[in-house]
TrEMBL record:
Origin superkingdom: Eukaryota
Xref: Gene3D superfamilies: MoaB/Mog-like domain
Region listing for Disordered, in residue ranges: 302-324
Annotated Pfam families: FLAD1_M (PF24102), MoCF_biosynth (PF00994)
Residue ranges occupied by any MoaB/Mog domain in the UniProt entry: 47-227
Record protein name field: MoaB/Mog domain-containing protein
UniProt-recorded Gene Ontology molecular function terms: FAD diphosphatase activity
GO BP terms, alphabetized: flavin-containing compound metabolic process
Length: 324
């Protein structure tokens, strides 16, 4: 009897063959197929990973995530997450794996310069078991378009030196040679040698310098538009309604409104404006006609009026009241 019970116990405790297969890491071919699928899928969601000790230490103010948020909003992409992490290999690896699995379009910012603490390329390569390979086109563009710093008057790309090795770090990119290389490296602007490296089909590695980040991100738009639910990129609409009423006074009505319009993909927001006489109610969604149909009702229920920009109907004494 005990032996039969032991057999039964072993039967239930041992993982089934299908479960064992499901919990294994994907095979090489499966990973390649998943990466190709990610590079083609419709883009609904996005995430942003800001990498840099200088941001966490307060030395630099992050503006790139705000720019990406506006960029996504204009295209109708739902930006679901923004994270700021330090220049730490394990942190970068964990974050990019998780984001790549959960979101359609992932952007990283920072950590791709020539110094020892610029470890984004190597960390993302390691996260997806890829080698770092010299990208010849990027290197040739670098030689053609970049100029040596005034402090390096004798610098030469043809002569091995510590400075040359440092520069090469910026064009040694995570490379999956089993996949189409044109899907992994994008040059959005001919006048820039910096490529956008695309890893695992959906992780886009961008520099942290705001001007470069913004220029390269804008250059990705033609690559992104065909993959949107609305390829015309009409994006999302936000309607602002200024109200003189306290948030607590309109909270019950806004809760009812939110429940009513949520099935239509509309979000209702309420934002206090400290020191001002008027607060803001927002309606956000992609069906502009439906949003417009709500305006008169919302204006009446919050005793407000539609405005183009927040604060345009502030009263003259608001700032004095704030200072008092």
């Amino acid at each position: 009897m005990f032996s039969r019970l032991s057999l039964v116990a072993r039967h239930f405790s041992a993982p089934s063959a299908s479960l064992a297969r499901a919990t294994r890491r994907p095979s090489f071919l499966a990973r390649m197929a998943l990466a190709d699928e990610r590079s083609r899928c419709t883009i609904h969601t996005a995430a942003c990973l800001i990498i840099g000790d200088e941001v966490l230490g307060g030395k630099t103010v992050d503006t790139n995530s705000a720019y990406l948020a506006k960029w996504c909003f204009a295209l109708g992409i739902s930006l679901k997450r923004i994270e700021v992490i330090e220049d730490d290999e394990s942190e970068i690896m964990e974050a990019v794996r998780r984001m790549s699995d959960r979101y359609d379009f992932v952007v990283t910012s920072g950590g791709i310069g020539p110094t020892h603490d610029d470890i984004t390329y190597q960390s993302i390569a390691k996260a997806f078991n890829l080698p770092l390979k010299l990208h010849r086109d990027a290197f040739e563009k670098m030689k053609k378009l970049s100029r040596p710093h005034p402090s390096q008057p004798s610098f030469s790309y043809d002569t091995d030196s510590p400075a040359r090795k440092a520069r090469l770090r910026m064009v040694e990119l995570p490379t999956d040679e089993s996949r189409d290389l044109s899907k992994q490296f994008i040059f959005p602007h001919e006048e820039l040698w910096v490529p956008v490296s695309v890893v695992n089909g959906n992780v886009h590695i961008l520099p942290g310098v705001p001007k470069l980040f913004e220029t390269l991100l804008d250059g990705l738009k033609p690559h992104v538009l065909p993959r949107l639910a609305d390829p015309e990129g009409k994006g999302t609409t936000r309607i602002l309604i200024s109200t003189p009423m306290a948030e607590s006074e309109v909270a019950s009505y806004l809760a009812e409104l939110a429940a009513m319009v949520e099935p239509k993909g509309v979000k209702v927001g309420s934002y206090p404006r400290w020191g001002k006489s008027r607060n803001t109610v927002t309606l956000v969604g992609r069906d502009q006609a439906f949003l417009e149909s709500l305006v008169a009702e919302v204006e009446g229920n919050v005793r407000g009026k539609r405005v183009t920009t927040e604060g345009e109907d502030d009263e003259a004494g608001d700032e004095r009241d704030k200072d008092a």
